[in-house]
Records
---
Amino acid sequence: MTTDRLTIIPPGHPLTGRVSPPGSKSITNRALLLAGLAKGTSRLTGALKSDDTRYMAEALRAMGVTVEEPDATTFVVTSSGELTPPDAPLFLGNAGTATRFLTAALALGRGRYVVDGDEHMRKRPIKPLVDALRSLGVAIDAPTGCPPVTIDATGAFAENRVVIDAGLSSQYVSALLMAAACADAPFEIALAGADIGARGYIDLTLAAMRAFGARVEQPTPASWRIEPTGYTATDFHIEPDASAATYLWAAEVLTGGTIDIGTPAGAFTQPDAKAHDVIAAFPSMPAVIDGSQMQDAIPTIAVLAAFNDKPVRFTGIANLRVKECDRVRALSTGLNNIRPGLATEEGDDLLVFADPALAGQNLPAAIDTFADHRIAMSFALAGLKISGITILDPGCVAKTYPDYWDALASLGVEYKAG
Ligand SMILES: O=C(O)C1=C[C@@H](OP(=O)(O)O)[C@@H](O)[C@H](O)C1
Ligand SMILES: C=C(OP(=O)(O)O)C(=O)O
């Protein structure tokens, strides 16, 4: 996407057709890392090729792993099982998964690694994970509490148990879980403080680890025991991305169309598939929606809520403030830009004051996406019903769904550049 602004032309007809979402970002970046930690060749099919997974693949290449791309949805990863220190800092853009997962895995490497990202990633907290790794005797430093992170690794942890506060991000737990199978003794992870937001991401991590030969048990809801198996190279198929699917589910109900995404909602293992039932209830979505177990779907549902038959309060979304941008603020700003008074923040809750009469109106609004793919993709939905919605920096969708604008176009949506 070369244009710096894209105006959506409301199609004026139901969106009907077939569009498959790309592979899951979460599962692709887990599988890439685990394949990089396994000795031998792993073939990952159905994979996502986007900014986030490219950063992970590039980082592995910089550490001596061969990552081939025989086609648009396959990675073939061949590794010695060791990630050798790179010549330069690893640049991971704004990929939270790549940044957090590599930080823990490299703490069991040998030598110096620097994990860094772009200006947005440099504002996303990683201190709880850094503190946990330091408590294991790892020489690790992140002076700002955000990347860059410098790790001087010796190949081992000095302790066999760690306590982690995952209140800000479940990715800290996933990162420790995946690293722990490479330790030299059985390892225990225990949760401190608040519960994890989206537990479903931990389940994704455990499933990927087991597919690569790990043995993990969960003695209590707040602890895990990981055997020191290391990982075994394997062939692994990746399901489509459930968060990407939410935009298509929403486009379908908003326009009264039928979009075949090729995968039934019940077949996804990712947490955001829970959004399907909520979206299917449109235009009578519930008055209170708890976003804690489907966080990445909240921008989609919040924009849809503007057209609901009653206002919606979103709860359990405090950690949306530390994603690619402060999504609670970006959503309230964008909705109020469309029509003042359409949304408000109450503490960390977001209230969207629904108005079905918005559909069909001409309400010119330039939506600041704050470089956040989900803000761009969800506000495009408003443009399916309201004329004048312009998405700024539409290319930011490349983080997880580079073909998003083409996918909508294939359903008959047209755009004006600028
Ligand atoms: O583990 C994962 O793959 C993810 C976990 C979630 O992040 P947090 O754990 O930081 O909430 C989610 O928002 C992110 O897109 C992907
Ligand atoms: C929060 C997200 O990404 P990440 O944390 O993986 O950068 C997301 O994709 O919505």
---
Amino acid sequence: MTRVTLTGVVKRFPQPGRDTAPVLAVDDVSIDIASGEIHAIIGYSGAGKSTVLRLINGLEQVTEGRIAVGEQVVSGLDERQLRRVRPGLGMIFQHFNLLHSRTVAQNVEYPLVVAGMPKAERAARVDELLAFVGLEDKAGAYREQLSGGQKQRVGIARALATNPGVLLADEATSALDPETSLEVLALLRRVNQELGITIILITHEMSVVRELAHRVTVMDGGRVVEQGDVFEVFSRPQSDTARRFVATALPTRPGPEQLSELRARHRGALVSVIFRDEGVDQPLIFRTLAERGVGVSIVHGGVTEVGGRLFGQVTLELIGDELRIEHAIAALGQVAEIEVIH
Ligand SMILES: Nc1ncnc2c1ncn2[C@@H]1O[C@H](COP(=O)(O)OP(=O)(O)OP(=O)(O)O)[C@@H](O)[C@H]1O
């Protein structure tokens, strides 16, 4: 079980041979990742996500600030010291990074060879790892003989070989189709739950955050613009960046274009009901409207699960005479969080 903390981390990349200021890739980033947590770092291209990951595993050196993995401060270590720390940090990649001239078993074995494990022990460990990721029957296969999902499972087995406390995942599902992506996310969930490994994943897909993460850091322009429990960030995003990401992964209120289409098709009043938890009493909502003699149809949105809790926004068309609708909306506002769409 390993906690990871970044405190006031800054990374500037000098521009050698150029008369320009260094690129400020990471700007005063602090993240506290609890032991056993799945923490997502999300942001648009260029936000600084990859740099943060490379700073954690020591592929880049911090310009300022401090990074600790468990008890070990990893910022400021030299290459020799880092070699001792790296077995504790597994890493998986978007394009899997498997060695094409080696079999699946040899790819998984590779970090154990580097770590100096005796041959007999290595074979047993490789078997165990392949069984964990469900690829026992592919031990002798080569990279070209595997599907994308299988390649990533090999990547995961290899990353787990040295028993790391932390797994770093760099866009691990971005190259996979949606179904395979869900399978890999399910495997990562097992890595976390069964092995207690802390996972730090970077992604530009909010659906990955929703599926897997406990907490999320939203980055923009090298800075942290929002941070918190996944459900909180999904249900009450504070920054523009988080709001835009949330809108990509959740049924929300209709956007301007959808709204004009809805208006063209539906003449009644439009009202959005916001679901932020299981606490919302759906039958009560419909009963409240029916009792006021108002007809209802669902015209947009839906509900989904975020962090095991219900969340979503459903837009209803209310049909009936104006006064009844006015009363119905007032009554609805007493039993649910609503937004009248004008
Ligand atoms: N080695 C480097 N030298 C100079 N600038 C760099 C270097 N690495 C990253 N940068 C710059 O730092 C900023 C952050 O890059 P980074 O790759 O961390 O972003 P990202 O959020 O991971 O984006 P992407 O999703 O496209 O990988 C960018 O402006 C990038 O051009």
